[in-house]
Amino acid sequence: METRVKQSESLTRSAFLLAFDLRKDRLTERGALGYLLRAAALAELLLAGNLADESGKARALTAPAVEPGSLPAVVWEQIANSPPRSWRRWVQKDHGKAVGVVRDELAAARLISVERRRVLLFRVERITPRKAYVSRRLIERVGGAIRGGRPVGRLDDDVRVLAALATAARLSTVVASRRETRSDRFQQLSAPVEPIATALRKSVEAARAAYSAG
Predict the structure, then answer these.
(1) What is the model's pTM?
(2) What count of other Cβ atoms lies within 10 Å of the Cβ of residue 124?
(3) Using CA atoms, how far apart are residues 78 and 189, in angstroms rounded to an integer?
(4) Is 106 exposed, middle or buried (0-12, 13-18, 19+ CB in 10 A)?
(5) CA 109 → CA 14, 105, 129, distances in Å?
(6) pLDDT of 212 strictly over 70
(7) φ/ψ of residue 128, rounded to 5
(8) Does residue 1 carry a pLDDT above 70?
């Protein structure tokens, strides 16, 4: 059965809120978050029929009915105005800027607070959730989906896709260890967005390897 995500739901906003470590009251996984958000935007567009997979490359179809300036709108414009490129290319492009775009959306919706201050010559930004219960509920549902509490076919579409992307990014708020991420479960979760989940996994692995290598 084809998986579709409702237009009213935002995978990008949910992915951002999923990355809050509520015990420490802060955003975690800053290095991987941009990749995750780009992948969430791509998944949202693919599932809504705005993008298609063409031999491992993203191809733009119809323009999405989303708010101008939102991350899915930005990503679709980039793809529509470029020759077909790999999903990994679109996961990685401007991933640093993706965090700011979604941060500003959530701040405007009063779902997060953003505090900026200077420490010596550096500007420090602290982002905290205004409604921690929203993140807590997301973490519970997505974490449960990853660990296999319910058959994949009985999961809500947004939870299934978020679980696949969070697993691909090894998001620490919902993935405690590699042992929790069974390969067969990941394959089932990611089936509707497989090329994007694979591109995200490879992008995050490459970024972490580069960081470790110094």
Answers:
(1) 0.91
(2) 10
(3) 27
(4) buried
(5) 13, 6, 11
(6) yes
(7) -135, 150
(8) no
Amino acid at 26: R
Q: How far is CA 57 from CA 21, 82, 140, in A?
A: 34, 11, 33
* Contact by Cβ (8 Å): 197, 11: no
Residue 134: Cβ-neighbour burial (10 angstroms; 0-12, 13-18, 19+): middle
Q: Tell me the residue ranges of DSSP E strands in 25-163.
A: 26-27, 51-54, 57-60, 85-86, 112-119, 122-129
**C-alpha span between 86 and 71 (Å, rounded):** 18
Go through 136-149 and write b for each residue having 16 or more CB atoms within 10 A of its CB, e for each that does not. Answer: eebbebbbebbbee
Q: Quote the CA–CA distance of 150 and 67 in Å, as a whole number.
A: 33
57 - beta bridge partners?
Answer: 54, 86
Q: For residue 175, give the amino acid letter.
A: V
